[in-house]
Amino acid sequence: MSFRTRFAPSPTGPLHLGHAFSALLAYDMAMAADGVFLLRIEDIDQSRARPEWEAQIYDDLHWLGIDWPEPVMRQSERQDAYDAALDRLWAEGLLYPCTCSRADIAAATSAPQEGTPLLGPDGIVYPGTCREKSDRLGSRPRGMTLRLDMRKAVAGVSDLRFTETGTEPAAVTVSSAELITQVGDAVLARRDMGTSYHLSVVLDDAAQDISHVVRGADLFEATQIHVLLQRLLGLPTPIYHHHRLIRDENGKRLAKRDDARAISLYRSEGLTPDEIRSKLSI
Ligand code: GLU
């Protein structure tokens, strides 16, 4: 199997040490396997994506010694593909519109008789408020949040599995019961975006013919949604490699706002790419 992987940053802030680790690891794995490393710009959230962050991503990655074939895939140019997949799932009756706000969901799950709200890969597991009351007839509504009806989605699906080679190597089985109770009706199209992270990442990995997804362990739980979507949309399931997360000295995971660990800052202080690698033990 040829090895094709990608690094898929969102241009919503500076690349920090955690991104450098992810990109270098994926790049090194691709080079060691005589494979291909691709870059993808995950800019579906146009309210937060900025051209200057995108330019900084290219610059920082080149400085780290990473290169990639052009043209780079940008999610903001892929809405037709996302629409086609949403149309298909809608026609199969697997989606429904949802009008709940975050506050509605919090209120619906915080009633004392509900117990502690269950947390899934996207936060509180959706309690299903709109599932039965929404109209699923006619053509797919635009400009609305669309959720996957998880019960229906898993009904005809068996043996969902994927191979994990990262932090805890395993053949992972995705259980339908857990998808229903612990993931629930995931959002596949956000009102303001017309797509979602889950849908776009699955379609783009397939479009880029990705054989190995290398990314942080924080996305391990989301992988079950991705594997289900691959099955529903007739797409191949890549091999997944979820790597350890880079933490700050307090053990907290680095986030975009951790500008103190921005690659650009280390660069301006005169660190070399090799010193970044040794900081990351890579
Ligand atoms: N765009 C995601 C991020 O910035 C990465 C998605 C992925 O690798 O699947 O964290």
Descriptive account of the structure:
By secondary structure, the chain is an alpha/beta fold. The chain has two domains: 1-77 and 247-282, HUPs (Rossmann fold, 3-Layer(aba) Sandwich); 78-244, Rossmann fold, CATH 3.40.50. Helix content is 35%, strand content 17%. The protein is built from ten helices and twelve strands. It has helices at 17-32, 51-64, 79-91, 102-110, 150-155, 176-183, 197-207, 223-232, 263-268, 273-279, and strands at residues 4-7, 36-41, 73-74, 95-98, 119-120, 123-124, 145-148, 160-164, 170-174, 187-189, 212-216, 239-243. The strands form five sheets. It has a three-stranded parallel sheet with strand order 1-2-3. It is globular, with a radius of gyration of 20 Å. The chain starts with a strand and ends with a helix. 33% of the residues are buried. The mean pLDDT is 94. Glutamic acid (GLU) binds at residues 8-10, 42, 201, 215, 219.
Annotate the secondary structure layout.
Layout: E1 4-7, H1 17-32, E2 36-41, H2 51-64, E3 73-74, H3 79-91, E4 95-98, H4 102-110, E5 119-120, E6 123-124, E7 145-148, H5 150-155, E8 160-164, E9 170-174, H6 176-183, E10 187-189, H7 197-207, E11 212-216, H8 223-232, E12 239-243, H9 263-268, H10 273-279
Parallel strand pairs: 1-2, 2-3, 11-12
Antiparallel strand pairs: 4-7, 5-6, 7-10, 8-9
Helix pairs in contact: 7-8
The structure holds glutamic acid (GLU).
> Strand order of the main beta sheet, please?
1-2-3
| Bound small molecules, deduplicated | glutamic acid
SS element count, helices: 10
Q: What is the name of the CATH topology of the largest domain?
A: Rossmann fold
Q: Give the CATH superfamily of the largest domain.
A: HUPs
Top-tier CATH class of the largest domain? Alpha Beta
- What coarse outline follows from CA principal-axis ratios? globular
Taken in chain order, the helices and strands follow as EHEHEHEHEEEHEEHEHEHEHH
Task: Provide the helix percentage.
Answer: 25-40%
User: The biggest beta sheet, please?
Assistant: 3 strands, parallel
Structural class: alpha/beta
Counting copies of identical and different chains, the oligomeric state is: single chain
**Alpha-carbon distance between the two ends:** 25 Å
